[in-house]
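Recap slide: Hydantoinase/oxoprolinase family protein, sequence and predicted structure.
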Amino acid sequence: MYRIGFDVGGTFTDFTMLDEDGGSVHYFKVPSTPHDPSEAIETGLAALIDVHSIDPARIRHLGHGTTVATNMVIERKGALTGLITTRGFRDTLEIGRQTRPHLYDYSISRPTPLVTRELRLEVDERVLSDGTVEVPLNEEQVAEAARKLGEAGVGAVVICFLHSYRRPEHERRAAEIVRAILPNAYVSLSSSVLPEFREFERMSTTVLNAYMGPRMGTYLERLLGRVSDLGITGELNTVHSNGGLMSVPTVREIPVRTCVSGPAAGVIGAAEIGQVANFPNLVTFDVGGTSTDVSVIVGGKPLFASDRLVADYPVKTPMIDIHVIGAGGGSIAAIDDAGALKVGPRSAGAAPGPVAYGRGGTEPTITDANIVLGRLDPVALLEGRLPVDAAAARKAIEEQIAQPLGLSVEEAAYGILRIANANMSRAIRSVSTERGHDVRDFALFAYGGAGPLHACDLAQDCGIRTVLVPQEPGTLCARGILLSDINMDFVRSELSIATPAAWSRACEVLAEMEAEAAAWLSREGVPEADTVLRIMVDARYDGQNFEVSVPLDGVDADGLEDLIARFRRQHVQEYGYDVSDRPVEIVNCRVQAIGRVSRVPIAPPIPVPGVDAVKGRRPVYFGEQGWIETSIYRRGQLPIGRTFAGPAIIEEMSSTLIVRPGQTVTVDPVGNLIVSVFE
């Protein structure tokens, strides 16, 4: 039987296939098809089936990482959306938090709300913060609002009432009315998507969910059709933002949770591989075609965040804490109005792509610079499947960058890389040193198609001593999908000072949530033996605005003192101080439902007999050191334990590692490349 993970990126769609019977793992990449991401998925799956002579019926599981939801928000291509809310609160979506994206830059404004004001309709109803109904739901007004939205042609309807996290009945009844009048509309309830207090974040998240819903459903139907046409009958799961998997029905219901789908899978994969390689502390460094994603793993566990911006819109949902910048292999280099060289965030993407790919690209990119400097194979990539036009890349850099700046082509290309590296270094520091981590205690885990190209330079710049590069790093997000468990986060707000009575109520809520989580796992097809439930409580000191998450060993009616002690320790760890005389407030109760899945084996590649590890030599440009004749290695042919010094280029299907002069690289027992950056 086979399990396949695939991740749709901005430039390439990556595949990892596990043969469960033989234990072998295979990797593959195809160019992405932004007009229809499912097309590239079908192409890649068909190629894997053909190349490895697989019976499609033996593919029992597909894991899916996607940027479809995020891209439709970035491109503003979601559904026309309407909102029904409590009277007096329709402008919550526009008022927001009254914070400016850049405090002193008055030319920058917040994004236009995804629901225009005329489609934000109010009805009479009011639930107080303690759950008391002050004004009953006016069902006639809900019906009238639904009719108005139908006349406007909306494809999605958001229902978000004040304090619905305390009493969701009003939203549920309103949804029944809306569905009866608009049977084809996608209806999203804030009490289902995010049953937490803070009405702006709840409304914003639910609006994004509804905005994504119809097109995400269409995409999933198209994808399922293509998979079925190939003869594959195995289940399809999608990675969501906290690194877990969920079924197609769950994705249809809450697509907003897929906003950092692929990058989250990469971090999960990095954590697993780092543990095996004895590097529990990692800075993950994922460079693809359009973006660079960085995150931190401490003690073998990724760090999580409860909110982030997606295309400048607030989203509050549990997710792996990933910092994203617009710098990737396809990032375009250009001279700005002031005559300075700028790299990114504009990207050539998959279409037309870098100039060297010969697909119509005319503007030089980071990939073109790496080809011109001999860092990437100037003939072909992807083991010969992607021809490269090095002369065209050189001409583009010469005409558009070097000549206007009075530089040689080499100086211009290297300048592109230095600017890109500076941007990436800032991203690494933002998640490491700026958050109190000593980078000397961390290894830089480099992956993505372009991560290993830049990793050794960046580690040297940032003071990181070790770089770890896994096998086929350009497909790690797809591989991470096969290392991901099925999981879902459940949350309910319970705002109250942590007294015995309040803790008793919180325990009742947590017990209800455990039952809800167990039922969800059962619907996802997880056997009871593979089920794990994790309990957390968000707490804060009375008077604070934001909370910290406190993990608990379980629901214990006598555990109030333990909760408070754990909270105080967590507060000291995150903020550096304790307020021992201040009461503690319980904010949210959380349960994470986990369904364990079998893991992809982490084993070294088997070298092909009779094939030399050294592929050849070519000149490579190393900045101040100029051109150096450098050995080119086939990664799959490097034996376990082999150690050699840079300069070196190590090539494989999905990526290329550059080892600088003075650095050494070793192949560890499971096939990872470990680069010692400093002696």
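The radius of gyration is 26 Å.
The chain has a mean pLDDT of 90.
(End of recap.)
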